[in-house]
């Protein structure tokens, strides 16, 4: 359970409580997959995965594919397409023949790995069946060895599949079942020719399944050319798996969103969260603002290099990253079980984007939650989403600073019994007794002080994430500032024009600044690196001359272009404006009406 449940009086009729835990699973439960006529081994794999009924796209596509028909499936991400083609693909493969019989093409390395992993899990109880992923950016050796050992199913990106074909390490003449997954994305990425070529090298008699979120003419052409009398199936967004996600919205004026977001994140029980924004600039900005507030966050947008994207997704998966701020494109196909919460920092323009966004949580039959921030005048956009998804969203309220403090202390208090049990408290007991004996304070008062110190605040509303509510002035009154950490006393925040995407790392940045600016290493404070820029804190202020010299220094082949940090995009429009000192001092300008926690009062 999390604190992010929609307001209690507006239960979501669309999300019946998902049964969890083996205790609740009836022994001989009827399973909706029974009707699909899957081979026994696959049928039990489905059970083992805990799929209790086929998703609509699975229900529609699997029977035709099992009959040997070609299928065109139109469905958004998160609708369960992998099993829709993966199960029939495995049914078509003969494990005793050690040749490539199933081929899946996917647009990115990450999707290829995901699909290969899913198909492997479906094939777990089929003996002698190997599934491998082939993709660019990694050595050929291991992929070649796996191919030569006789993997029967290959999942790959078109580019690398072509490479293996050219090297004759991959032969397609025994392929019985081919799949184009996320076909529109593959064509968008310029793989049209490769896809054509790969298909034309596979036997004409093979079966072909094509799945795509949209059906542009280029895909219709592929279909007409390479498919025989295909069966068309499509599912509309409302019937996708997103019904397992508890959805709500909150009215939050734009300038309060960063604070509201920080408080939502500070009170969630979700292990990891994704925050969706519309633009790359917003992704970096919001990511920076969260880091400033002490959250372990990162941002990705469509132009983040694949390598960086994978590293970030890996961190999300292994738990070393709490919050990912992403654009729609960047999060496409992302499947990370840990994501228990999706926050739409703004209302997605298209209902499809909404469905895709919230589909990043509630994966694998787990429960998930999604909250969408809307502006006071955006009710119409909300209505559009409700109409398209055939549901109404519950209005939730953004947690207040009080809620954050309460949540933090409750989390600590919940650990008290266990800590007490571990003992070894004699020393503390003694020191506390001494302190109390001085008679300056009651025990309960001392406990409250220690609580505040443990939670790390000076009482609700005083932490940085509360600034928009309290009107605390920012950055020691040095005027409007950007999305980076607040400089320590005596330090000034500078923005440089290199970031992760240019391969910038702290040592090279420090090197460039000290080398060119004649500074000492200890004059360089905290460095926060973002996608396309970084924020560096420097003791004192740089002279014009130092700025010019450092600005010409290069990191990763790019000039640093250092300048005082005046806010994201040079203090342009957007959330940067929320940092306007005047506004944040205007105490009346709060959203008090929204002060109440989600769910549990
Ligand atoms: P898509 O390819 O359409 O984006 P996926 O195949 O990745 O969707 O499936 C999305 C998630 O739903 C995965 O975590 C998958 O394990 C889960 N899933 C798929 N089918 C079912 C089902 N029938 N019941 C429960 N969970 C399912
Ligand atoms: Mg998929």
From TrEMBL:
GO terms for molecular function: ATP binding; hydrolase activity; RNA helicase activity; RNA strand annealing activity. Residues 62-233 form the Helicase ATP-binding domain. It catalyses: ATP + H2O = ADP + phosphate + H(+). GO terms for cellular component: cytosol; ribosome. Residues 17-27 have a biased composition (Low complexity). Keywords: ATP-binding, Cytoplasm, Helicase, Hydrolase, Nucleotide-binding, Stress response. GO terms for biological process: response to cold. This is RNA helicase. It comes from Candidatus Brachybacterium merdavium.
